[in-house]
């Protein structure tokens, strides 16, 4: 068995017992030591193995002579302690234990599953730099504290993971430079000190295999499963009610970093607005980034390299010497607080940056990129604690939003959240804060609808048919009751004849109400009296009451079919629109609302004020407009597929309203919804409410038509834009070749509206082949230009 030489490490490895052999040689020539005889015996026993002194890479002699190795190491492994100590010898970077004590061997034998020796929570990068630091400390007088707690995680026979902390004794190791070793200067040491993450730089100064490490290390384990320091930390962080959290955390971190005046801070990060915010949990945790400010822009707070590390890469950012560092605004802010070195640690949950944990020192070099890695073992606890605090705070925010604003669309939730956070922050400071109105300026509105054609006419037809059927049944029963209740029956028959005449002619708005009033006041009391008298007609009257039931009675059959049809159409259309909104939001986030009436209406609002962390271009608006046309065509096509299976034959029409001027929308707290803000912007709402019933100018023809998409606009530029979209979709066989250009009759207070109308080709193929975006349209236009 050969030693596995590390592929990426400055060291070559040799197992050697030279130093312990020298120890026995000293004892062998000592006249006053009782162990001299044992020493001479051991030296004689190892004479056949000169490689034990010179160094070996083949472990066969060691594996084949366990008793001899045990005798050679007996001075380090007292037999009396073998059942108590957890100890062995090893070589760095090797999954290897030689001459283990009985207790260690028993632990390994009991492991379930069998345990493979390796150090948890370490990687090649860390091991390489630890090796370089070991060389610098021994040969160049540095005092880099690269140590951190190392553990073996060994499962017991019952499957419980036990955590054993590892300590190393390197007294029996020799570090020897090879011909490839490079001498380094003080400037090199300072450069390395500030560049833990630059592995290439470390390899340049300490090339792989340029040093020989010879000998062995003694490794001692002790059970640290419930180690006091970690337990204290976890207890401190996980406590739900801890009024001195900051003080206790500082005490723990001072111990970890061995810095008596170390201080900590915390700043929350708002990804939507790219800002840092003051944190207000049950207590105030100040931030050195913010000082006394409540909010600061992240890019203006940090320097470029800090932004890259913390926000983009989500890794530590450390500065060991603030005084010598670049003199930008960030460093000036740090210097003003007398900070000489610091570490900023990203608090990341589910790959999202939620806060920055700040550790500062008032001495140069005490905090640096090397000892920043001590945070690795405790950041998970810290992250969970901060995340829990944020979760509790967010629950308060959601509760406040629910009370003040009701349910909010995700695209604009962030702005309501900011207001709620400010309210709670000032509340925690015992200050008053009035929630401000939520306004989004300069957003472009899009409106569209799928309307059920002649829905009120269809409903009246169904209602009229049901009432006619019920009236005929009532007349038949009254005629049979004439022999029992002649006066009442004769009177009611005359009144019913007048109602039937109305039902068979024009159906008025109050016809249903007057008929039901006639039934409730006159007919049904008479029928109930007949039942109580046990007349022969009782079974027929009972059948009549069964048929009058709204849930399943025959006198409501047509109305139920109509209502079911409306429900099925609306649910199908709403489901598709909501589903397709996922794709639309991925194109560019925007505010979306949908309403069910006799059909589906939707409004979209897009602009930079809704998504401040993304740059808004007019092409994003054009892309959303193209998406809207395609989705409405697809919704029409879906209806054609669904139509044969509907209880009633109902058609739908599609309409889009174009409005190119940006508007403002304001959340109406009393009404719990968004509305346009300002008198000028109200024109959009007025047109929206009146346009679907409009006629083509000079005719009684509605601007919407079955099987066609209607686009209403007011300017020539809008006409050209939408003709471009239509022509593109015509080339994709979604729309017919013919385009109708129409003028719309003047509405109340509104004139000059126009429309284009084009047939939807859903008869060709369902579903449509794909959905296109604006870039594909531009690409096709360029190709045609060529």
Relevant terms:
alpha+beta, six-stranded antiparallel sheet, 25 helices, 19% strand, elongated
Distance between the termini: 71 Å
Q: What is the average of the pLDDT values?
A: 83
Strand content: 15-25%
* CA radius of gyration: 42 Å
Largest sheet: 9 strands, mixed
Total strands: the figure is 24
Would you summarize the structure shown here?
By secondary structure, the chain is of the alpha+beta class. 43% of the residues lie in helices and 19% in strands. About 1% of the residues have low confidence.
Describe the structure.
With 786 residues, the protein is of the alpha+beta class. It contains 25 helices and 24 strands. The strands form five sheets. Strands 16, 17, 18, 19, 20, 21, 22, 23 and 24 form a nine-stranded mixed β-sheet that branches. A six-stranded antiparallel β-sheet has the order 12-9-8-15-14-13. A four-stranded antiparallel β-sheet has the order 2-7-4-3, covered by helices on one side. β3 and β4 form a beta hairpin. α17 packs antiparallel against α21 and α21 packs antiparallel against α22. The longest helix has 31 residues, at 557-587. The radius of gyration is 42 Å and the shape is elongated. It starts with 10 loop residues before the first strand and ends with a helix. Mean pLDDT is 83; it is low at 401-406.
How does the SSE layout of this entry go?
Layout: E1 11-15, H1 18-28, H2 36-45, H3 51-54, H4 60-63, H5 66-72, E2 86-90, H6 102-110, H7 124-139, E3 150-155, E4 161-169, E5 173-177, H8 186-193, H9 199-205, E6 211-215, E7 217-223, H10 228-238, H11 245-257, E8 263-270, E9 275-277, E10 279-280, E11 284-285, E12 295-297, H12 298-301, H13 304-313, E13 317-319, H14 329-335, E14 341-349, E15 352-361, H15 379-404, H16 410-428, E16 439-452, H17 455-481, H18 486-504, H19 511-532, H20 538-547, H21 557-587, E17 591-597, E18 599-606, H22 618-642, E19 652-658, E20 663-668, E21 673-676, H23 682-690, E22 708-713, H24 716-731, E23 735-743, E24 754-760, H25 774-785
Parallel strand pairs: 1-6, 19-22
Antiparallel strand pairs: 2-7, 3-4, 4-7, 5-6, 8-9, 8-15, 9-12, 10-11, 13-14, 14-15, 16-18, 16-19, 16-20, 17-18, 20-21, 22-24, 23-24
Helix pairs in contact: 1-2, 10-11, 10-15, 15-16, 17-18, 17-19, 17-21, 18-19, 21-22
């Amino acid at each position: 068995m050969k030693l596995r030489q590390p592929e990426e490490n400055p060291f070559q490895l040799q197992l050697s017992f030279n130093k312990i052999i020298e120890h026995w040689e000293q004892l062998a020539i000592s006249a006053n030591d009782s162990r001299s005889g044992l020493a001479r015996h051991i030296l004689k026993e190892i004479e056949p193995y000169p490689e034990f002194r010179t160094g070996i890479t083949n472990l066969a002699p060691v594996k084949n002579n366990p008793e001899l190795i045990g005798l050679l190491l007996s001075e380090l492994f007292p037999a009396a302690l073998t059942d108590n100590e957890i100890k062995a010898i090893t070589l760095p970077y090797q999954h290897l234990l030689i001459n283990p004590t009985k207790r260690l061997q028993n632990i390994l034998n009991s492991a379930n599953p069998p345990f493979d020796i390796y150090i948890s929570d370490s990687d090649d990068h860390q091991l390489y730099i630890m090796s370089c630091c070991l060389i610098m400390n021994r040969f160049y007088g540095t005092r880099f504290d690269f140590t951190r707690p190392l553990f073996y995680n060994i499962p017991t026979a019952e499957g419980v993971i036990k955590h054993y902390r590892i300590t190393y004794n390197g007294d029996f190791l020799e570090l020897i430079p090879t011909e490839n070793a490079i001498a380094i200067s003080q400037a090199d040491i300072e450069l390395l000190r500030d560049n833990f993450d630059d592995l290439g730089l470390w390899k340049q100064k300490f090339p792989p295999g340029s040093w020989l490490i010879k000998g062995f290390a003694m490794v001692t384990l002790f059970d640290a499963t419930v180690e006091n320091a970690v337990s204290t930390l976890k207890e401190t962080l996980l406590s739900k009610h801890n009024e001195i959290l900051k003080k206790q955390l500082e005490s723990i971190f001072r111990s970890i970093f061995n810095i008596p005046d170390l201080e900590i801070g915390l700043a929350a990060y708002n990804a939507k607005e790219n800002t840092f915010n003051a944190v207000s949990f049950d207590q105030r945790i100040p931030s050195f980034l913010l000082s006394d400010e409540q909010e600061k822009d992240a890019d203006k707070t940090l320097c470029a390299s800090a932004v890259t590390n913390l926000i983009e890469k989500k890794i530590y950012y450390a500065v060991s010497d603030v005084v010598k560092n670049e003199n930008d605004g960030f460093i000036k802010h740090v210097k003003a607080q007398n900070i000489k070195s610091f570490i900023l640690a990203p608090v990341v949950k589910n790959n999202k940056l939620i806060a920055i944990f700040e550790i500062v020192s008032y001495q140069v070099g005490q905090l640096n990129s090397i000892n920043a890695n001590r945070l690795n073992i405790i950041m998970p606890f810290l992250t969970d604690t901060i995340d829990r605090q944020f979760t509790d705070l967010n629950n308060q925010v959601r509760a406040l939003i629910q009370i003040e604003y009701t349910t909010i669309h995700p695209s604009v939730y962030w702005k309501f959240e900011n207001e709620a956070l400010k309210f709670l922050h000032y509340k925690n400071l015992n200050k008053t804060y009035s929630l401000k109105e939520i306004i989004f300026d300069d957003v472009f509105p899009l409106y569209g609808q799928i309307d059920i054609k002649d829905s009120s006419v269809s409903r009246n037809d169904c209602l009229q048919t049901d009432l006619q059927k019920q009236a005929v049944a009532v007349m038949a029963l009254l005629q049979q009751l004439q022999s029992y209740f002649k006066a009442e029956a004769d009177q009611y028959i005359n009144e019913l004849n007048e109602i039937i005449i109305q039902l068979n002619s024009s159906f008025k708005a109050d016809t249903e109400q007057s008929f039901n009033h006639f039934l409730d006041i006159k007919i049904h009391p008479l029928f109930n009296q007949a039942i109580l008298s046990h007349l022969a007609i009782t079974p027929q009257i009972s059948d009549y009451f069964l048929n009058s039931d709204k849930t399943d009675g025959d006198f409501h059959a047509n109305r139920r079919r109509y209502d079911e049809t409306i429900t099925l159409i609306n649910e199908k259309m709403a489901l598709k629109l909501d589903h397709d909104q996922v794709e639309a939001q991925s194109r560019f986030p925007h505010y979306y609302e949908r309403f069910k009436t006799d059909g589906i209406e939707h409004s979209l609002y897009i602009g930079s004020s809704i998504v401040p962390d993304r740059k808004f271009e007019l092409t994003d608006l054009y892309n959303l407009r193209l998406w809207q046309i395609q989705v409405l065509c697809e919704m029409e096509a879906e209806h054609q597929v669904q139509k044969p299976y509907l209880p009633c034959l109902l058609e739908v029409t599609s309409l889009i309203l174009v409005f190119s001027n940006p508007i403002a929308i304001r959340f109406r707290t009393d009404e719990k919804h968004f509305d346009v803000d300002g008198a000028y912007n109200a024109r959009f709402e007025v047109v929206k409410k009146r346009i679907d019933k409009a006629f083509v100018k000079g005719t009684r023809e509605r601007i919407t038509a079955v099987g066609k998409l209607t686009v209403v606009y007011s300017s020539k530029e809008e006409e050209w834009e939408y003709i471009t979209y239509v022509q593109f979709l015509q080339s994709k066989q979604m729309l017919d070749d013919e385009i109708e250009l129409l003028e719309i009759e003047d509405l109340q207070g509104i004139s000059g509206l126009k429309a284009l109308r084009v047939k939807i080709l859903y008869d060709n193929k369902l579903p449509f082949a794909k959905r296109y975006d604006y870039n594909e349209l531009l690409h096709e236009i360029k190709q045609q230009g060529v």
